[in-house]
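User: Reviewer 2 asked us to show a designed sequence for the structure in our supplementary figure. I'm pasting the structure tokens here. Could you produce the per-position amino acids so we can include them in the response letter?
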């Protein structure tokens, strides 16, 4: 259970509340949703916030934040989506039933509380974020959204780089089996996902549950949208939100910080001071309460670096980098098994890499590794000399003469010839110190299915966006292998790829 701790509200904003009351909301198909409400005791209508609970959690999740908002003048309703805990029905995974439920929750809110129907916002973490974003494209009464650790493209979340996510999907499916009531459709889709069949059907299921699918409706309704995520989110990687943010036409703000899924905002859920929840409060104060607090005049793209330093703000995503530096992949030395990274891409060389075994290069453990990085500043690491050169391609650059400020999404342009019809490669970008220890900056996989074997392929793999300062004296390194515990790869035991020239890494620099 969440601890009941509240975060500070300015003295002049604090006000008596009704306390929490627990309610049932019955939607038209007879499903009963469990919820709670807290309101200010001051007379008149109040701005309102609706919190859908996260995946595997219930309406108690937001008690600390709901109490703080109510003391600041908001009517707040939190509810448990269908299929979870004591709510009725079956899990709909932010599908049409869940979105219809939001409108019924808003109907109940307006009819039974002091909520002002013209000043309603929605907020949530993870599942609650996705439901809130999608609902804002269907119900124009949602005037502001704060989506924390959410998604805009569920297809990319499941199949980014055409590679299935293993640990993140297992975590979600396992918690649903323990704490929810899954539908036959959900069970069938999950079975297809793990069996790698009916891929088109699984992707269509995910597409219908993606905010990007309803972008035209969201832009027509023009809610004020705040997006906040971690760079290392292993469930909903950040690049999809960059694209979605750029396509929004209403008031908007994008914040990235160190951490994995739901980690940047986690301490705020137990009432501690937290920069994400501070932004949420300021966002609603501006767009629901009409307080001129200046957040709408600030540069809306906010980056907190993985390597520390001052918070950076930019007018748009394109402004985060001022140039792109190309690091060409050079010939691999037959003795050391290492190639040069940097300068112009060269031709006339090749290097075969077998994918029989994994290497020490790894993205970590879902939630744990990147979550600890947010708390300790220590990312997943690998000692580069220990990377098996038979099972990975390794390219290392020269020592940086000055700090290299990486901002944005690096792209790996790789040319290779696979021996198998299906396969996977995983690219890791490292910051390497004088001892050969590499700190993971960012990484991503890419797969191919049922292609023509022994035919050259070229891929452009966009790595998850990051903010990282490579210190002077450190070197940039690229490692490419075929396995990572985070993913379900497509490599066979005897599979290999032959890397060749005209390959490079494009790194956004500021």
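Assistant: Here is a per-position design you can include in the supplement:
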């Amino acid at each position: 259970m969440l601890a009941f701790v509240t975060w500070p509200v300015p003295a002049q904003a604090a006000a008596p509340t009704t306390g929490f009351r627990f309610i049932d909301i019955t939607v038209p198909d007879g499903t009963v949703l469990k919820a709670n409400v807290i309101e200010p005791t001051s007379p008149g209508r109040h701005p309102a916030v609706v919190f859908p609970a996260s995946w595997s959690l219930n309406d108690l999740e937001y008690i600390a934040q709901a109490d703080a908002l109510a003391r600041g003048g908001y009517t707040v309703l939190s509810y448990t989506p269908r299929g979870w805990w004591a709510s009725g029905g079956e899990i709909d995974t932010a599908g049409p039933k869940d979105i219809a439920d939001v409108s019924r929750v808003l109907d109940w809110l307006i009819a039974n509380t002091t909520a002002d129907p013209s000043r309603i916002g929605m907020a949530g973490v993870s599942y609650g974020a996705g439901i809130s974003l999608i609902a804002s494209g269907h119900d124009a009464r949602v005037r502001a959204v704060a989506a924390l650790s959410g998604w805009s493209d569920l297809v990319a979340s499941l199949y980014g780089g055409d590679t299935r996510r293993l640990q993140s999907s297992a975590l979600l499916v396992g918690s649903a089996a323990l704490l929810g009531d899954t539908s036959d459709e959900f069970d069938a889709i999950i079975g297809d996902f793990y069996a790698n069949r009916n891929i088109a059907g699984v992707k269509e299921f995910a597409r219908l549950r993606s905010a990007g699918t309803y972008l035209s409706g969201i832009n027509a309704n023009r809610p004020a949208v705040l997006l906040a995520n971690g760079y290392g989110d292993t469930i909903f990687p950040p690049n999809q939100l960059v694209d979605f943010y750029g396509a929004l036409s209403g008031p908007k703000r994008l914040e990235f910080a160190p951490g994995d899924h739901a980690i940047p905002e986690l301490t705020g859920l137990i009432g501690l001071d937290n920069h994400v929840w501070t932004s949420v409060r300021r966002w609603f104060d501006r767009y629901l309460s009409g307080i001129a607090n200046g957040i709408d005049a600030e540069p809306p793209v906010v980056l907190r670096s993985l390597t520390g330093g001052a918070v950076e703000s930019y007018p748009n995503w394109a402004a985060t980098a001022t140039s792109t530096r190309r690091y060409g992949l050079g010939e691999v030395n037959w003795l050391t098994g290492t190639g040069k990274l940097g300068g112009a891409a060269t031709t006339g060389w090749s290097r075969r890499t077998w994918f029989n075994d994994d290497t020490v290069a790894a993205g970590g453990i879902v939630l744990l590794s990147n979550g600890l990085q947010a708390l300790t500043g220590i990312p997943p690491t690998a000692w580069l000399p220990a990377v098996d050169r038979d099972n990975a391609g390794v390219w290392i650059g020269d020592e940086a003469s000055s700090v290299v400020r990486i901002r944005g999404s690096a792209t790996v342009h790789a040319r290779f010839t696979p021996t198998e019809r299906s396969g996977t490669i995983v690219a890791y970008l490292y910051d390497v110190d004088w001892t050969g220890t590499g700190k993971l900056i960012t990484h991503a996989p890419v797969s191919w299915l049922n292609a023509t074997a022994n035919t050259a392929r070229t891929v452009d793999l966009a790595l998850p966006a990051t903010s990282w300062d490579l210190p002077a004296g450190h070197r940039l390194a690229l490692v490419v292998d075929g396995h990572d515990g985070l993913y379900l790869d497509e490599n066979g035991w005897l599979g290999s790829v032959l890397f060749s020239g005209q390959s490079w890494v494009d790194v956004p620099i500021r």
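For the response letter, you might also mention the following. The longest strand covers residues 437-448. Residues 137 and 218 are 4 Å apart (CA to CA).
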